[in-house]
Amino acid sequence: MAYGLARRELRPRVPLRHGEGDKYRLTSIEGLAALSLDALSSVAYGPEAIVLVLIAAGTGALTATLPVTLVIAALLAVLVVSYGQVIAVHPDGGGAYAVAKKDLGPSVSLLAAASLVVDYVLTVTVSLAAGAASLASAFPSLGPHLLAICLIGLALLTAVNLRGVAESARVLMLPTALFVVSILGIVVLGLLRGHPVAVVGTAHPVHATEGLGVLLLLKAFSSGCSALTGVEAIANGVPSFRDPRVRRAQRTELMLGALLGLMLIGMALLIRRDEVAPRGGVTVLAQLTAGAYGTGWPYYATNLIVTLALALAANTSFGGLPVLMSLLARDHRLPHFFGLRAERPVYRWGVVALALLAMLLLIAVDADTHRMIPLFAIGVFIGFSVSQIGLVRHWAGARPPGWLRRAALNGIGAVLTVVAGVVLLATKFLEGAWVVVVIIPLLMLLFSRIQRYYTEVGRELGLGETPPPLSVADSLVIVPVGEVSRLTRHGLQAALSLGHEVVAVAVHADPAKVRTLKASWDRWDPGVRLDVIDSPRRSLVEPLVEYVRRAAEGGRQVAVLIPEVEPLHRRYQLLQNQRGLLLATVLRARTDVVVCVVPYRLGL
């Protein structure tokens, strides 16, 4: 109470390690930057996908762009609300995988996991390849180096994400803000102007090859739904948010839905009003940019911002896939090291695995966006459908207040996503979608085989069972030696603390060296028996392994303790003989004895 200050309760504080605490987790705005750029940047190719389908019925069919986009926007609203529910029901992340595991059974959860893995990897590769292609459009001299550009971008994203999701979010906040402002500027200025300010690209003659029927509209709808990829990433990355993480993640999902829907509908209005058709050398977004800003510096600046956004959209996968892989590891469906986190709250093994898979795919397709686009949306629509159907099952089982309304909403969403996915698969099957049909079952088989292995290991180890009582057995510690030295003393000293009986074993082919060793041993007299093995073939490993095998006969507990010199500086490591490490490797492979390597640290 001194000096009028109120008495404060003193509580012991445990200092946080680097990477712990809310400082290294996402706010809602940071989450929008880190996990939503994939979905937001899809406006660069989603509306164009609709136009490319509808133009087959002639320029007059482009008026259907707006109705198709409105249906997609309605589906977007359903998905945003649904994933808000997924976030609340499954706050540990996982999205469609978590829903399927809880409500639809193990087989469907494997399907959801495999489809999400495919979608995340393709998100990285498509985003990087599209960004590189856009950059090469502005600077044609970079055209022959698209693969190198993609790999450099992938390396930079990997390095940033290995430092933590929060750091990557801060890096992405400015590009995300510039992209959103640029696209909204195109929509607002374009609608305020009575006609396009400028026209870019070369005109192509349009020949109608089919009529505007239901099938064509379904194809346009399914192609345009590529603009919805990435909507699920926030639900998959809920653990990355600060507390209260559920509320923050739901708020981020709503912001994503509002921004994406506004941009899609605004661009569809411009396409319909100005009858924007595909032109040579430019994208539909570039035409809308020129129509709103003209061909001055804002036009080039916007194209560069779009290029950067497409490249950085790959970061969505780095925020979502490592979390999903950690959940799979926790369920014994991936190697357990994928569940390990570094001091910073990031699953680094998942980040590295995603980077390697993306690198292999980019090299395989030579960073060609068009070869990957047919594969892109199949996986995400499987995830959409699974999560919607799973939530219907959840509401029907739990029956909370208002469950019927929620189940109806998710049921409508499931019908729409299933229809879109089936049409997309049917229309893109021969263009490369068949690859996904093959890869997803293979991934499901891989997950199930890994889970079966862990189950068998648990059975052999008796996990969950009470083991039999311990039995104390006579033990022998064998120490391989070469000559009498401080290294020998170091090894024997350690061995005497481990077992009842210790024996030193030397392998020599020269009788003179054997006599010298025995004389030195007798003078030293360490109180440990020395056995010398004659090796006429000058082999060290084989005679020792055979000696150890004989010593271990009858079930005796045997340990081999190998003293090994360890230099202070790594550059001297190659100067040491590696016979100790070789012996340890062979003993582990051929015997069941305990193998220990004891380092003797040098001062140089």
From TrEMBL:
Where are the bilayer-spanning segments? 49-81, 110-136, 142-160, 172-192, 254-271, 304-325, 346-365, 371-395, 407-426, 432-450
Question: In the record, what terms sit under GO molecular function?
Answer: transmembrane transporter activity
Pfam families in the record:
AA_permease_2
Task: List UniProt keywords, sorted A-Z.
Answer: Membrane, Transmembrane, Transmembrane helix
Cellular location(s) = Membrane
Q: Which residues form a coiled coil?
A: none
Which InterPro entries has this protein been placed in?
A: AA/rel_permease1, APC_K+_Transporter
Q: Does the keyword Transmembrane apply?
A: yes
Its topology with respect to the membrane? Multi-pass membrane protein
**Has keyword Hydrolase?**
no
| Primary location class | membrane
Listed under GO cellular component are:
membrane
PANTHER family for this protein: POTASSIUM TRANSPORTER KIMA
Protein name according to UniProt: Amino acid permease
Query: Which species is listed as the source?
Result: Streptomyces fagopyri
Phylogenetic classification of the source organism: Bacteria, Bacillati, Actinomycetota, Actinomycetes, Kitasatosporales
